[in-house]
Write a structure and sequence with these properties.
Elements: H1 6-12, H2 21-24, H3 29-47, H4 69-78, E1 84-88, H5 126-131, H6 134-143, H7 152-162, E2 166-171, H8 177-180, E3 188-190, E4 193-200, E5 206-208, H9 209-217, E6 232-236, H10 245-254, E7 260-264, E8 286-290, H11 299-304, E9 322-326, H12 329-340, H13 343-366
Bound molecules: carba-nicotinamide-adenine-dinucleotide.
Carba-nicotinamide-adenine-dinucleotide is lined by residues 89-91, 93-95, 98, 100-103, 107-108, 143, 172-175, 192, 265-267, 269-270, 290-292, 294, 328-329.
Length: 367
């Protein structure tokens, strides 16, 4: 299989031989402009102390037969025990009834006006929360995992695990739906924390989701019963807080070993999560399943030839490895499952698990 992209190498290789004197006469205006730009590019790489190995010059692409879902399905099928990492955001939970942040009109940020915030993000900022926790808890009612059922996208990820293909699942979501869908905790990295547990901000006393739910659903700001002073905050990561150690440790270890990366339902706007797409090997194909294209390489990275961001405009599989499938996550996952020969299995799994959760919810209400 062709792994090297010689054309790209030639374009980006800073050590490339310069044309000799004999070629000088034939140099066109365009060539002069190109070599001028190349000089600027090299100068900037040097100034910014960017290592050649961070640039695209050593990239090895061309592992997909075609830059389509079919190309991806072929690729997964041909690698025994393909190690797949999934990276997701709020978009995989919207069909469960949980709004995302940024979708126009339905996203949470769009609907925050009533909370009189200085700016929408303040609701998830630690300093603001310490002063004024009420807007967060009012909003938390919409996000709390109360009666929400995982979506076909969640069960697709579970199916990847059951097939022995899921290397790790990285989620920005705090709704715990991966746990409800039955993903084992060792496969799960909750990058932005979770509602599953909470702690008092003053004395760090731990609290369960059930305890927190009771308060939030009754519109009470949860106060610590130990120190009787601190507010109890769910263990979700606010702006201004460190990400969980598990995320930092595993992200460093996992990504370079992945054979394939799937990104779903995220705007890829929150760092450092978004830049995980760059941690896989340069030859690792990446599939985005989302309503819109996101996480694309910016113009400066492109100019400098840096391997940063997704590149969907490659014309051939020889020069690219990224595929964008635009649409609803659940539909995209079902399509992928169909093409992998697991379509009926996925439908059955969703049906069975939803029936089980409905029965559980019913008996919880009765008791
Ligand atoms: P976001 O910034 O709101 O982006 C969501 C992305 O998903 C957008 O690109 C949408 O176009 C896309 N999208 C929405 N619905 C679908 C769908 N059905 N099919 C395909 N694509 C869809 O959310 P991110 O996750 O990127 O932002 C990170 C924040 C959001 C994290 O810190 C989360 O904690 C936070 N968040 C989590 C939840 C949750 O846990 N369910 C809900 C809302 C926000």
């Amino acid at each position: 299989m062709e792994k090297h992209n010689d054309e790209q190498k030639k374009d980006n290789n800073p050590d490339e031989e310069k044309p000799g004197p004999s070629s000088e006469n034939t140099e066109t205006e365009e060539d002069t402009e190109d070599s001028g730009m190349e000089k600027v590019r090299k100068y900037l790489l040097q100034k910014l102390k960017i290592n050649a190995s961070d640039s695209e010059s050593d990239s090895t692409t061309g592992v997909l037969k075609e830059l389509t879902i079919d190309g991806i399905v072929d690729y997964i099928k041909q690698i025994p025990k393909c190690k797949i990492i999934t990276m997701v955001g709020a978009g995989i939970s919207t069909s469960a009834g949980i709004p995302d942040f940024r979708s126009p009109s339905s996203g949470l940020y769009h609907n925050l006006e009533k909370y009189n915030l200085p700016y929408p993000q303040a609701v998830f900022e630690l300093d603001f929360f310490k002063e004024n926790p009420e807007p967060f808890f009012t909003l938390a009612k919409q996000l709390l995992p109360e009666g929400f059922k995982p979506t076909p996208s969640h069960y697709f990820i579970r199916l990847l695990w059951e097939k022995g293909l899921l290397f790790r699942h990285y989620t920005q979501n705090i709704d715990t739906l991966e746990r409800v869908a039955g993903l084992p905790t060792e496969k799960l990295v909750e990058a932005h924390g979770t509602f599953h547990t909470g702690h008092c901000l003053k004395c760090r006393a731990p609290y369960t989701l059930e305890w927190m739910k009771e308060k939030v659903l009754e519109n009470i700001v949860p106060k610590c019963e130990e120190c009787e002073e601190g507010v109890v905050k769910p263990d979700i990561v606010f702006f201004g807080e460190m990400l969980p150690d598990r995320f930092l440790y595993l992200a460093d270890k996992d990504f370079i070993h992945a054979d394939f990366l799937i990104i779903m339902g995220s705007s890829l706007l929150v760092q450092p999560f978004a830049s995980l797409v760059d941690r896989v090997h340069p030859s690792c194909p990446r599939l985005l399943i989302n309503k819109e294209k996101v996480g694309m390489q910016d113009r400066i990275s492109r100019f400098l030839g840096l391997r940063q961001g997704l590149i969907f405009d490659a014309k051939t599989s020889h020069s690219g490895r990224d595929v964008a499938w635009l649409g609803d996550c659940d539909t995209g996952c079902q399509l992928l499952a169909d093409k992998l020969g697991w379509g009926e299995e996925l439908k059955e799994l969703v049906k069975r698990e939803h029936a089980r959760l409905d029965a559980e919810n019913l008996s919880a209400k009765d008791s």
